[in-house]
Design brief:
By secondary structure, the protein is mostly helical. The chain contains eight helices and four strands; from the N terminus they run ααβαααβααββα. β3 and β4 form a beta hairpin.
Length: about 210
């Protein structure tokens, strides 16, 4: 649910940015007012992209990084996992049947800095969405700040509403989220958010707007 929600917001932001760019080609430029948060996002984007660039195994070995020996370590771990010593009960001496170890992926000569390429790619997409949001806010404040104030006001009001629902909804026997949708996690939901961390992550910054 969280991944689908994030993906939906990102797609809507990208579509809106595309429509604005078609009407205002100068939309995609470095912001003058919101340059500081935009710069931070660009810095984080650069870090994410750098993590996806593969380096030769020799370079990781020279840097003393475990990526140079991760394949050999995995083979040693699998050998220990399937060995008779590992399968022998130290108290009874009984030997468990041999366990079929999972197949290891093939060795690669070029390895990126990240161990989880897909998660890094998802983070880059999220940062791109943040950059697009900043550009949209910059466009909104181009003539005056009234539009930005309205966005901040609605975000703050929605945070108050979510917070009120979260307070009212707190009880151990709840079976429905907001009294509408059945969920096994309804008792620990935060307003409409199944994940309490997500709910607090929205309310805490939005409320202060």
């Amino acid at each position: 649910v969280e991944d689908w929600s994030a993906a939906t917001c990102e797609v809507l932001l990208f579509l809106l940015a595309g429509l604005v760019w078609l009407r205002y080609p100068a939309f995609l430029r470095f912001p003058r007012r919101l340059w500081a948060p935009f710069g931070v996002v660009l810095l984080l984007l650069a870090v994410g992209v750098l993590q996806l660039i593969p380096l030769p195994k020799a370079a990781w070995k020279m840097l003393g990084d475990e990526r140079a020996t991760i394949k050999a370590n995995a083979v040693q771990a699998r050998t220990l996992f399937t060995s008779k010593t590992y399968r022998t009960d130290p108290f009874t001496g009984a030997v468990d049947p041999e366990i079929k170890a999972p197949r290891l992926p093939g060795s690669r000569s070029w390895i990126p800095a990240t161990f989880t390429s897909m998660a890094t790619f998802q983070a880059i997409l999220a940062l791109l969405a943040a950059a697009v949001l900043i550009l949209l806010l910059e466009k909104l404040a181009e003539r005056n700040r009234g539009g930005v104030r309205q966005v901040a006001l609605w975000a703050g009001l929605s945070a108050i509403v979510v917070g009120v629902f979260a307070v009212v909804q707190v009880h151990d026997k709840a079976s429905k989220v907001l009294g509408l949708r059945e969920s096994a996690h309804a008792a620990s939901a935060f307003g409409p958010f199944i994940n309490e961390n997500n709910g607090m992550g929205f309310v805490n910054p939005a409320f202060f707007l």
